[in-house]
Fold this sequence. Notes:
The complex is a heterodimer of chains A (255) and B (285). Chain A has 255 residues and is mainly α. Helix content of chain A is 88%, strand content 0%. With 285 residues, chain B is of the alpha/beta class. In chain B, the strands form 2 sheets. Chain B has a 6-stranded mixed sheet, with helices on both faces. A 4-stranded antiparallel sheet of chain B has the order 2-1-4-5, with helices on one face. The chains are: A mainly alpha (255), B alpha/beta (285).
Amino acid sequence: xxxxxxxxSGMADFLARAGAMTRFFGRLLLIAxxxxxxxxxxxxxxxNAGALSLAIIMTSGLFVxxxxxxxxxxxxxxxxxxxxxGTGAALTLLKELGPVVxxxxxxxxxxxxxxxxxxxxxxxxxLSAMEVMAVDPLKRVVLPRFLGGVISxxxxxxxxxxxxxxxxxxxxxxxxxIDRGQFWSEMRSYVEPADVREGLIKGLVFGxxxxxxxxxxxxxxEPTAEGVGRATTRTVVVSSVATLxxxxxxxxxxx
Amino acid sequence: xxxxxxxxxxxxxxxxxxxxxxLRGVHYAVDHKPVFRxxxxxxxxxxxxxxxxxxxxxxxxxxxLITGQIRADAGxxxxxxxxxxxxxxxxxxxxxxxxxxxxxxxxxxxxLDVFENVAFPLREHARLPxxxxxxxxxxxxxxxxxxxxxxxxxxxLSGGMARRVALARAIVMDPEILIYDEPFAxxxxxxxxxxxxxIRSLNDALGISSIVVSHxxxxxxxxxxxxxxxxxxxxxxxxxxxxxxxxxxxxxxQFMEGLADGPxxxxxxxxxxxxxxxxxxxxxx
Lengths: 255, 285
């Protein structure tokens, strides 16, 4: 009996949270045009979420590419087609690995920063102070951060994929001695603009999801140290799972 | 739930023409625990009104009702004759522009320096030339004695300085009502004296009405024109500091004289002391 009650209350909590998220997302969309009137605020957040994530994105990209170079070469050498390394790696990175790994890194770096910043602003009364000063914190704090994340994610994805492909090339061409011309020309003939588009669309979708989850969790954090900590943790967990689920959905739609 | 609309306005009623804010029969509960049970408070125009009472009596909640951050379950909250609960978002924001509020910890925006913190309401609400913003901000910072700290970040300020910066920010839009939430809490005697004098001089020089929530009885008595003492969701006494000093009610005496025990008990409700020490009773720890 108590198990049923617990299950029901868990379901009610989940539905309440889903409802709150939908309402919050609706409000953000409704006020989104206001964000365009304050481009400087959005640009600041593109810097915070995007530019400040560059180091981690580029370092991870390089190593992901180099590992792909090693593993890809090992795999392709078994079937005697090492020269396809560039194409295989580029397609995998553009369509799948690039957007997904970027989103996971984004959730860990920029997402947690957003959630804890907004949560701390709530805990230290900064959001209430804005309300009393007749400034809507949703427009002034939440919206620019959300838009900054949404704009940053496709750009970070593109940079991640570019650096990764360079990493693959470093291992394939420089280390294993695959012919440089063949590496690039095969990649050019097999990779279509649609593949690049798929990667950017995924980057955008993950950007909306991860940024939204971060600002939602931060804005609705309990105004205590534990509350902000919990919101930050939830941001990473929910963003990561949402990224993987959305990845399946977008892939199924686009393929 | 839901507020009672359509009650007579504060102007020209029993509450008097000279009140800037009137709370009438206000009921408010958090998680079914009542905070206010029929609260009546009138804030006189041009006065410094002190709201006092033991911790946890909902003093800050009262301020949040006046600023429209929360709404009463029953009763009316009127500011300048208008029922706050009946205002739409736009009207509420218009009303808030005429108020300034000093939060307990200052609530300065931590990503902006002192100058930008004070300039924040101006930049959000008015399109002013930079030169004018600069002189307005420096004037207000000078008024609180912190013109020299304009380029410091909030993290570099002491508690007292942060509160003075927040005060400069609260007056930068020339409000008609200034609200202070525990302005003396945690301040050293010098900072306390400074803030106290600022509250009085700003009130008189700018011709505004001030609401000060505090439990520093001695300090508040020196500057308040009238005081309310709240306890258990109601007003238990109200009058000038001198009148309250002579009040006979035990709760007022306990509060004004800072007695540990009295109508507000020293001990939080607990089972019998000896029985609990001896481990008797069910579930005793």
